[in-house]
């Protein structure tokens, strides 16, 4: 299978604090790749390194077979799009103009759009379901709508790789599922490789083809959700008691938080169930 | 889906045409009216069938008012664009060359140049440019301790640098005793009246390339509003764009200050007014600010010439009287926006 992202020995520092420790992994094409891990484990730094925003201190990052430093900003932006965490609402443009801005890396310096670009923007708006409020401004939208607008903008960039930083963090349940379904459809219909940072372990288990679990800047485990989400590894990485069983939908693990008052209760099956490694 | 907005090129053309008409009308007004009625009387005489225009009126029109109007157009365009660029780059609606202390720094540089006996060009222009770059760097460093995006720290740094510049200016002026003193003080308050055609030509040669550059970078300015990191992932080379815009803006501001002194708040009035009228797209706003800012300054200068019974007042007084209340209003509004969040 073709590899779209290849990372070898990647480290990153903020001053003397080491945010990433010798990461090495690769992401195959048309993969829904989700990075999980506790706060401060380096997930966002990893994503920003892939986006070309943070420069690696050491190690090699290659995107679509080429070292990331070998791309111009525009060249990278044609192949890879980035949806930041909590996109700003303080952006005075209308939805359709924002989505159309996704065409910028494909256009000249003035960003003068052609009919084909407007067509691609319309498609991106339909795909994400934002066309009904295309004429509105960001500050008139809810958090979920705003998130979809920025995803539409990123899709309009027509990237081969889409990076998202906790796109479901501030959303209600319906919007969470909607965004995740959207990503799955993007992968299946358009062959886009989706790399996402998420805090929601269960959502990640339901959708990810491959999971990367990070802890303190290092890779703890990588592989299928069934392989990565075992209670020993999770309890150790997150530092809290957890119960892992199988999702009622089947096939993938389900992680349940265990409040302290249940610790000695016989309602918590001990030792917790383990799923077989069926990678 | 709602109707598409008209194509960008059409919007640019329509807005530019409308503001060009406004600019030409303001310029005609400013050519005809002034502290004397000589030109009007000469025009009436021509209408009544006089063979030749009054030579006195011709002199006033072509030697005095014409270069002055051109100067006002250039300076108004430059300062409006300066405000527009700073507001986009620093993502702060209150950023403006005068408020950030960049104008004050240029003035300090220019006064140094004058006192050292340099000629207006290139000596004083260069010292003014050095002064503006130094203050800009100082303000950015002072406010970056937290984050450039923090509105308060940026304004506070600007106020401090401005106060320091005023002190230096007063200090320099009180050290000199010669006849240049009155000229310096009058020039400081903003004065368009000294210009001859040669000076106008020189200023145009410095400013017009900056205007073109701003238009060329107008779309990256749009993307910058989305945040630096997001703009980068959309293909904008942040470092180059930011550096080029900052240097060009402070060069442009220093050139206007070296020629016409301190004209405050112009960069606040036109960008905000035009954003309300034509929307947030910088590809439309850059030409609009150049034309609208020019018209605004021509009209302010006309007021400065016509309002006093005798003589005239510095045009900087007019721009400050219009701009400062707007600044206070915007400050109040951005404060209540912050509370709402």
Please explain how this structure is put together.
The complex is a heterodimer of chains A (279) and B (341). By secondary structure, chain A is of the alpha/beta class. Chain A has two domains: 3-223, 3-Layer(aba) Sandwich (Rossmann fold), CATH 3.40.50.300; 229-279, no CATH class. Helices cover 31% and strands 26% of the residues of chain A. Chain A contains nine helices and twelve strands. Chain A has a six-stranded mixed sheet, with helices on both faces. Chain A has a four-stranded antiparallel sheet with strand order 2-1-4-5, with helices on one face. In chain A, helix 3 packs parallel to helix 5 and helix 4 (115-128) packs antiparallel against helix 5 (143-156). Chain B is 77% helix and 0% strand. The model of chain B has no long low-confidence stretch (mean pLDDT 85). Chain B has a single domain (8-332), classed as ABC transporter involved in vitamin B12 uptake, BtuC (Orthogonal Bundle), CATH 1.10.3470. The longest helix of chain B has 36 residues, at 55-90. The two termini of chain B are 30 Å apart. At the A-B interface, helix 2, strand 6, helix 3 and helix 4 of A face helix 9 and helix 10 of B.
């Amino acid at each position: 299978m073709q590899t779209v992202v290849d990372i070898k020995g990647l480290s990153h520092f903020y001053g003397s604090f080491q945010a990433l420790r010798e990461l090495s992994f690769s992401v195959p094409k048309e993969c829904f790749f989700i990075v999980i891990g506790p706060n401060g484990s380096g997930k966002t730094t990893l994503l920003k390194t892939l986006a070309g925003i943070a420069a690696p201190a050491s190690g090699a990052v290659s995107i679509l077979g080429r070292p990331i430093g070998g791309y111009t900003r525009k060249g990278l932006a044609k192949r890879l799009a980035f949806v930041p965490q909590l996109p700003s609402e303080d952006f005075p443009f209308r939805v359709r103009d924002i989505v159309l801005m996704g065409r910028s890396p494909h256009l000249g310096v003035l960003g003068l759009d052609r009919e084909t670009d407007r067509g691609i923007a319309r498609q991106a708006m339909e795909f994400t379901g934002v066309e009904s409020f295309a004429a509105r401004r960001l500050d008139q939208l809810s958090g979920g709508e705003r998130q979809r607008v920025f995803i539409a903008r990123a899709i309009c960039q027509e990237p081969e790789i889409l990076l998202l930083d906790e796109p479901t963090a501030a959303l209600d349940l319906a919007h969470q599922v909607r965004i995740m379904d959207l990503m799955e459809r993007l992968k299946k219909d358009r062959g886009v490789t989706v790399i996402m940072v998420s805090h929601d372990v269960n959502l990640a288990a339901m959708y990810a083809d491959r999971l990367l679990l990070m802890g303190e800047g290092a890779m703890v485990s990588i592989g299928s959700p069934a392989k990565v989400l075992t209670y020993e590894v999770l309890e150790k990485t997150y530092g809290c008691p957890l119960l892992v069983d199988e999702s009622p939908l089947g096939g993938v693990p389900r992680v349940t938080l265990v409040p302290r008052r249940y610790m000695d209760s016989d309602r918590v099956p001990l030792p917790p169930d383990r799923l077989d490694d069926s990678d | 889906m709602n109707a598409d907005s008209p194509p960008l090129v059409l919007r640019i053309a329509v807005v530019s045409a409308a503001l060009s008409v406004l600019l030409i009308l303001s310029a005609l007004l400013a050519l005809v009216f002034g502290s004397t009625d000589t030109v009007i009387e000469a025009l009436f005489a021509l209408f009544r069938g006089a063979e030749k225009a009054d030579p006195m009126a011709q002199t006033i029109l072509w030697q005095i008012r014409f270069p002055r109007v051109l100067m006002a157009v250039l300076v108004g365009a430059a300062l409006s664009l300066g405000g527009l660029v700073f507001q986009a780059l620093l993502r702060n609606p209150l950023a403006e060359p005068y408020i950030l202390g960049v104008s004050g720094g240029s003035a300090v540089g220019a006064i140094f140049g004058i006192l050292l006996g340099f000629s207006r060009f290139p000596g004083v222009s260069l010292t003014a440019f050095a002064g503006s770059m130094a203050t800009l760097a100082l303000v950015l460093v002072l406010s970056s301790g937290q984050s450039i995006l923090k509105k308060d720290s940026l304004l506070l740094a600007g106020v401090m640098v401005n106060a320091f510049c005023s002190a230096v200016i007063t200090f320099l002026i009180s050290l000199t005793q010669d006849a240049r003193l009155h000229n310096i003080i009058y020039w400081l308050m903003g004065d368009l009246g000294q210009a001859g055609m040669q000076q106008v030509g020189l200023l145009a040669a410095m400013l017009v390339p900056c205007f073109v550059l701003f238009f060329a970078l107008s779309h990256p300015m749009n993307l910058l509003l989305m945040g630096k990191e997001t703009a980068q992932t959309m293909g904008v080379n942040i470092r180059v764009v930011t550096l080029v815009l900052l240097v060009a803006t402070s060069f442009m501001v220093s050139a206007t200050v070296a020629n016409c002194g301190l004209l405050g708040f112009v960069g606040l009035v036109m960008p905000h007014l035009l954003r309300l009228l034509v929307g947030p797209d910088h590809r439309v706003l850059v030409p609009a600010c150049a034309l609208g800012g020019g018209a605004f300054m021509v009209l302010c200068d006309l007021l400065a010439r016509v309002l006093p019974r005798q003589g005239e007042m510095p045009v900087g007084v007019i721009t400050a009287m219009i701009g400062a209340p707007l600044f206070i209003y915007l400050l109040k509004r951005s404060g209540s926006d912050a509370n709402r969040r």
